[in-house]
Amino acid sequence: MSPPPVVCQSTRTVLACSISARVYSRNVFAASVAPLVAGRALTALGCTVGVVLLAVGPLCVGVDIDDLPDIVLLLKFMLCTSKKKIRDADQVHVVVCCQESSASPTNPFTPRDDEETEDCLFLSVYTPSLNPPTLLPTIVWLHGGGYVLGFAGQYDGADLVQESNNKIVVVIIQYRLGLFGFLAGEQVKEGGALNAGLLDQDFALRWVHDHIDKFGGDKNLVTIWGESAGAGSVLQQVVAHNGATTPKLFRAAITSSTFLPSQYNYNDTIPQVRILQPKLGMFFSLPSRFPRLIDDPSCNGTDPLGCLRTVDSATLGEINMNVIEHGFQGTFTFVPVVDGSFIVQSPTDSLIQGKVNGSDEQDMLLSVTNTNEGIPFINQSAQYNVAQYVRNIFPLFGVKESLAAAAVYHSLGSPLDQVNAIMGESIFKCPTYSLLEAFPKKAYKSQYAIPPALHSQDVINYFPDYTAFNSTLIYNNSNFINAFTQGFLSFVVNLNPNDKLRPSITPPWAKWSTLMTEMLFNRTEGGEPYIAPFRTSSALLVRCAFWKSVRHLMGQ
Predict the structure, then answer these.
(1) What span, in angstroms and rounded, lies between the C-alpha atoms of 185 and 11?
(2) Which of 312, 376, 256, 425 is nearest to 69 (CA)?
(3) pLDDT in tens, 259-277
(4) CB atoms within 10 A of CB 345
(5) pLDDT confidence band for 20 (50 / 70 / 90)
(6) Do you know which Pfam families this protein is assigned to (predicted)?
(7) Residue 322 burial (C-beta neighbours within 10 Å; 0-12, 13-18, 19+)
(8) Which of 124, 220, 251, 254 sits 20 to 30 Å CA-CA off 13?
(9) Which residues 6+ apart lie within 8 Å of 211 measured at CB?
(10) Angle between helices 386-393 and 415-424 (to 10 degrees)
């Protein structure tokens, strides 16, 4: 395998490619300011000795690189191999990758103060100690947001460190989104980088593998964990290189609402028409500057990627939002594709064939889904023809497949109920069960069912400071929250949610392959926690079998 690419660039002040690190040390029990005594080891990162403060402080002093617009122009949408030195943590502004909306994640009418930029490949390290007696298990968290939204600053890794009794290190990364991270088509294959956002993640994992020991983490005890598109990203890393990624970058995976929308081949009609061909209707309502760009003699349609490289970040951001906002509700325009190298074949095919990074006997998986995953993605006031809805979200379906899908869901209440279930199961729940089946005798499964149990409502339980979609705590019961979070963190440390870091009310938790047993996290009508094992619904598995049978038309 060739050396891993570094994938990052900006149209303005950036520079060469890099991942910049910020380090947070919160020793919440000792509450002391720890001097950074690992300067000798950190010289490998190009750093000088600094001080890690109680909350946020400088890790090391880096060297700024002069503005290199000509190089940036050549590298946009491409890979590069140079690394910039890590920047001083107190000099790093809160920035996010260019994304669908500049609105606040908690209030869409309030603009965010964060800076959107292409120079966004940061990772944050949260460690209880730079010199623990033994190196600690490490979580690498991948944020969600449908591959078009989200950023590391929505999550405070110190939450997980504290909940683990200071027994883990947490790394939270960012990756390029939307048009900037998931542009597809023949031109991108030939002159750019397909699945750039996934390659950003891969590079971050390799950075962790090479350097996490300098922050108290153990490279051999890494768990990758994500929610929604972050969980989908975990799935992508699990099947990367057809399960043959080297070196081994993680020993365990956690998925919270595994997200697998249609993932076509990079040169199939749908991603090419949707993403790269303006004259075929992809760019819909464009900002006024872009039509003039297309009409320019140098942008006559023969080199659309070259044209995009001449466009500034702000205009590309407008194009990005226009494309995304014109998609059919519940569909996702900029998503991973099968590129033939990093993602060799459809993810579900890799799972069925057992070609996964995680095939070692000791490798483990834990997955959680929410009861009502699909509801937030469906207009609850609309009228639906179920067969037509199915064909809208899976445009390669013919009449036969659309009617067959409608028949499978016909008994599940009203057309709205059926559509809610189709979205939740085809995109989130059924991919989760396919993932579980790829880890026989090595996987645990849970269901978050606190009403209304919508997509993402589980996240705030393990990230109390979470600020994003569905981030209101709907059941504030300390026994429940402790039980729910300890299942995940005990798994990270011990690969077994039963080997608890703290006492909890969770009963013995069997592996999913044991009679397809899951752990239900719910509450009683009287408001008491209800945590108990249950069997996966056989009817649900039948519906998942239908989706698996038509996976190639779905793009899964």
Answers:
(1) 22
(2) 312
(3) 999 999 998 877 655 444 4
(4) 14
(5) very low
(6) COesterase
(7) middle
(8) 124
(9) 44, 45
(10) 30
pLDDT tens digits, one per residue of 307-332: 777 777 777 777 777 777 766 666 67
CA-CA distance, 423 to 407, in Å (whole number)? 15
Residue 272 vs residues 177, 232, 310: alpha-carbon distances, Å: 17, 22, 20
Query: Where do the DSSP E strands lie in 301-449?
Result: 364-370, 443-448
| CA 293 – CA 336 distance, rounded (Å) | 27
Return the domain boundaries, the chain: 347-554
CATH fold of 347-554 reads: Rossmann fold (3.40.50)
Neighbouring C-beta atoms of residue 467, cutoff 10 Å: 14
* CB crowding 76-111: b at 16 or more within 10 Å, else e: bbbbbeebbbbbbbeebeebbbbbbbeeebeeeeee
Average confidence (pLDDT) over 59-82: 35
The H helix count followed by the E strand count for the chain is 20, 14
Rounded Cα distance, 169 and 160, in Å = 9
Kindly give the interhelix angle for 229-239 and 430-437, rounded to the nearest 10 degrees: 30
Q: For residue 450, which of 506, 518, 522 has the smallest C-alpha distance? A: 522
Q: Where are the alpha helices (DSSP H) in 240-312?
A: 269-275, 289-295, 304-309
CA distance 75 to 53: 36
The pLDDT of residue 73 is above 80: no
Position 449 scores a pLDDT of: 98
Q: What is the CA radius of gyration of the chain?
A: 23
Of 496, 184, 539, 136, nearest in space to 342 by CA: 184
The confidence score (pLDDT) of residue 276 equals 41
Assigned token pair, 153: 């600053």
Q: Where are the alpha helices (DSSP H) in 409-457?
A: 415-424, 430-437
Least confident of 77-91, 134-148, 314-328: 77-91
Q: Cβ(81)–Cβ(6) under 8 Å? A: yes
Buried b (16+ CB within 10 A) or exposed e, 25-59: bbbeeeeeebebebeeebeebebebbebbeebbbb
- Kindly give the interhelix angle for 386-393 and 399-408, rounded to the nearest 10 degrees: 120
Q: Alpha-carbon distance 537 to 539, whole Å?
A: 5
Residue 523 in tokens = 């509450």
